[in-house]
């Protein structure tokens, strides 16, 4: 899964109709609606759009035949495995009818080209590991965790016999982190993955 790091635009002309796409990141439905309102062109014939935020999604055809604009835009978002993304494709009619298939290709293709040009960042599923280790092992465990580029100590509390750390790690590396801590401390540390 990926998210957009910023806004991107793309324009093309298809049979004298101008298509202009704007894509951007959003965090919720309200932000998606604001983006759509801000990037729609009042002078254009159609401002079609789609967004996906987790399992939620919406799309709009803005006067184009049903399923020929918003749905292909959503398919472009899903085809590039994007989340928290919105795309608005504006069309200025050029006088030549494109037909249903032509509209689907034009809207979906314009959105896809815009999204391909956009900068993306991979979203990595993480979880929290709680590590309770004795004072004698604390510095060594902390140093080894700091050397891991994808592990982050998010909280640390001290108690009478040692320290408890909350560490955010990629889900795929949780077992590796647990083994590492167990090996470093010869089994003296307790690791719970949440």
From TrEMBL:
Limits of the Impact N-terminal domain: 15-115
UPF0029 domain location: 131-188
PROSITE patterns per UniProt: UPF0029
SUPFAM superfamilies: EF-G C-terminal domain-like (SSF54980), Ribosomal protein S5 domain 2-like (SSF54211)
Coiled-coil boundaries: none
UniProt-listed Gene3D superfamilies: 3.30.70.240, Impact, N-terminal domain
Domain of life of the organism encoding this protein: Bacteria
Family according to the record: Belongs to the IMPACT family.
PANTHER family in the cross-refs: IMPACT FAMILY MEMBER YIGZ, IMPACT-RELATED
Protein name per UniProt: YigZ family protein
Organism (species): Pseudochelatococcus lubricantis
